[in-house]
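Shapes recur. One chain:

:::
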Amino acid sequence: MVAEIFAGISALKSAFDMTKAFADMSDAAKRDRLSINLQKEILAAQATQMELVEEVSALKAKVAGFDKWEAEKERYQLCQVAVGAFAYVLKKECAGGEPPHWICAHCYEQRKRFLLQFSGPSQSGVHKRLWKCPSCSAGIIVSFSDKIKYAEEIEAINDG
């Protein structure tokens, strides 16, 4: 970005120098060549300015995305949802009408919000259920006893 700024300044300086020389010229052919060169320098300066404006806009959008994520991530708390398995759980006071849900801990760290989806019974047991992330395919196996135990813990966190 600094290089573009200096390139823009350099183009404007060249245009200024050409304008000074233009005023001192009496030969029409030289004046025409100088006029063309001046127009090229002005166009180059305008192109640099447009690039800088686009870059500033992109950076502003990126900052707005960070701000939005900061607000979004405050709505969740890391909880153990099964033995050795963690997910970000929607805080009760931040639900705003949304049903309770979990988001993938891995994706959360990547500044993404993907809800863990029920994928059916686990292959490792009848009383176990598999929840998967649609983005990174991370999975959590939750047994009925885990569900009861950690549901109470999550509820205590939300109440306390």
Remarks:
- The first helix runs from residue 2 to 24.
- The chain has a mean pLDDT of 81.
- Strands lie at 76-82, 85-90, 102-104, 117-121, 128-132, 139-143.
